[in-house]
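I have been asked to look over a protein record a colleague put together. Alongside the sequence sits a line of tokens, each denoting a local backbone shape. Please read both lines and tell me whether the tokens look consistent with the sequence. I do not need a full report, just your reasoning and any doubts. I have pasted the whole thing underneath without changing anything.
>
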Amino acid sequence: MNDRSPYQNLPGTAFWRSAVVDSSPAEMTGIYSKKFDISSDTKIATAGSCFAQHITRHLKRNGYNVLDLEPAPAWLPPTLHNKYGFSVYSARYGNIYTVHQLLQLAKEANEEFEPADICWERDERFFDALRPAIEPDGLETSDEVRFHRKYHVEKVYEMLYSMDLLIFTLGLTEAWIHRKSGTVYPTAPGVLAGAFDDAEYAFVNYGFSAVQQAFDEFIGVLGRIRAGRPSPKILLTVSPVPLTATASGRHVLQATTYSKAVLTAFAREAATEQQHIDYFPSYEIITNQAARGTFFEENLRSIKSEGVGAVMKIFFQSHNLRKDSTPYERPAAEPISAARGSGERNATSDDGLECEEAILEAFAK
């Protein structure tokens, strides 16, 4: 009889005690092994949910070539860049919470889809419904919204055409759509602007197969945009930030667990099946039981700087461009701008992140 076990001689990372209990949550080893290199010449595009803003900021600070196709005008003070959607991602699209939003933007950029009902109104000002937070005071006319959007979409096309690597942080499976056209919004009408009408808008909660199908469609659109040029590499990660609120009818904890389970399962499978796609476990690093919740602020949603530092340190230990310094350079503390709503946390909470989803907290009774 063979007395050997398939668990014999496995590395310490395969066992809970050695890999989690006896391991520092801030110094985890073996949880990530890169599939490809990122060089100083790699043109990186960033997009995703609120947590992705941390990634963009730290990449820039550590010498990476992060694209910025819609830079802030010279007259706008740096302290106001985030408030108006500048210097946050590689284009001024605001937070992209779902794969369906990403697909829709790519199709719009390639003139394969024209979103409907894109001008929302509040206090006689007009907002781009697909990125309602980038002009916090709105614009004077709906024509102005469309003019700005046309320019923005052109820059998105340029980004998708030229990038070598897309780092996309998945945030949610829940979304609101325009019933007639299928247009997907980053937040429900009536939250930042617009007015909710049940006959016009519907709630959706995308499952695994829907997320996978939308991502496959996105890859197809990307191929058409690049017209025979090499496919860009894609690094997927999942935001560890829980939902602020849910319209699913479930307890918000169940809704959060479902959403993150779908997204992590999808991202891991996509990385397993496709050589040009990698998965970075930011979600697992932050929610690691060994951290005992210490990576979260008192609201149990916002991520402390120590948590962000742990995530980025592990990333830079694998992808390090700095040869004359430590792999991870912790930034100095930054002032927190006044909250005007939220997203995957308070609208402009720690490190000045700009989010829409957390504004939903204001509707709690």
Summary: The longest strand covers residues 165-170. Residues 33-334 form one domain.
